[in-house]
Amino acid sequence: MRRAIQERNTKETELNMIVEIDGSGQALVDTGIGFFNHMLELFAFHSGFDLKVKARGDLEVDDHHTVEDLGILFGKCLKEALKDKRGIARYGSFRMPMDEALAIVDLDISGRPYLVFDAEFTREKVGEYSTEMTEEFFRAICDHSGITLHIHVPYGKNDHHKIEAVFKAFGRALKQAVRIEGDAIPSSKGVLE
């Protein structure tokens, strides 16, 4: 079973997360940020991961610490659950239309953290979620899981649609990449670190 449990407690946040890669897309999410809850639920549905998240953060300051720290925690869970990455497809790509917006996500579970984030937002917030935190969330995932991730939103007018398309496309691309295809480590080097 590819599953991980992580917690993170700082002066700014108290977080608990359970990630089950081979789940059924069920999510039980409470971050204190409604739009972010919705995005994590959509990610779970489209990835097929089961996701349980309980977060208490300093939202009276803003949403930065909660969102970034959950990215850190998710990255750690993903790395733990994949272990040595034996048998995985490794690569995933998905193009997700959301009404007038399009998001393109390509990723490599390479062991090398790198984020290319090419998306612009015109609104400061969607609900109580800061749009700038989208990039920070995915950067934290990359840094702590060791994946290379390219996110491109070539067009769109509605920031809700653009961000939603990104989370859905990330879920679909990750679902492809973690799929078991055999028993070998998918690298000519024999290791993914």
Automatic annotation (TrEMBL):
A GO biological process held by the record: L-histidine biosynthetic process
Alphabetically ordered keywords of this record: Amino-acid biosynthesis, Cytoplasm, Histidine biosynthesis, Lyase
GO molecular function: imidazoleglycerol-phosphate dehydratase activity
GO cellular component entries: cytoplasm
Catalytic reaction annotation: D-erythro-1-(imidazol-4-yl)glycerol 3-phosphate = 3-(imidazol-4-yl)-2-oxopropyl phosphate + H2O
Subcellular location: Cytoplasm
Pfam families per UniProt: IGPD
Protein name, UniProt field: Imidazoleglycerol-phosphate dehydratase
Organism: Ileibacterium valens
Gene designation: hisB
